[in-house]
Amino acid sequence: MGDAMMDFLDKGPIETSRQLDDYCYHVAGRIGSNFLNELIRQKDCVDGKPVELDDELAAQFGRYLQFINIIKGIRKDYNEGRKFLPGELIHRGISYEFMMESKTSLDAQDVRDYVFNRVLEFAETRFERSVRYVKSIPSELSGYKAFCLVPLITGQKTIENMRDSKAEKVFNGDEDATKISYGIGSIMNFSYYLAKNDEGKKANRWLDEFGNSPRRFSFKPDDYVLWAKDFIDIESDTLKKHLGIA
Description:
70% of the residues lie in helices and 2% in strands. A hairpin with a 2-residue loop joins strand 1 (45-46) and strand 2. It is built from 15 helices and 2 strands. The chain is globular and about 55 Å long. The chain starts with a helix and ends with a helix. It is mainly α. The longest helix is centred in the first third of the chain and has 27 residues, at 17-43. A two-stranded antiparallel ribbon has the order 1-2.
């Protein structure tokens, strides 16, 4: 990852969407395919055979998370001198600086909207394959499945929050637009119990439903306790206690 970052810095600003995709692959996708999958392959066995997870799906999962990180961190990165958004998306001759700094120009606002939607689309096109990757993790590897469930869910809920907040707030770096206001306690809680309880038998059924309609599953604590018990066999009162809302 460090080598890839230095390589891209040496090449100068990212100009095309392909370059951005390559960047996301090298700094995040390869962590899934070349490191985590290999670690599982070397360490874990099911029915006496090494666990072989799909490298392409792992790489897409990494890309999915990295695209989300890029758009949610656009203001912080810019303030610290990092520019990840492809120049080809900043059309009509507007500079990166003008796009980031102009508060009143309609052209700058239009470009921010366009770039915001395009980068989120890059992430969203990889959501289905990310779900498939997490589904492919055997229930015997419940710890790794929970480990992957947390960023999968958190990433999707962050996308939803940014879409609802819209481009201007995200480009301003407003925390209520780029962070989940209710925290990730319910997501961590759910991921652990889904992977562990009932030998993880309900995990892939939930992932199918989540992949088809992620907004159905709100992790705001008061909403979460209404549906989570159907998948993790825990009573609502116990869930509330775990979340501190009993």
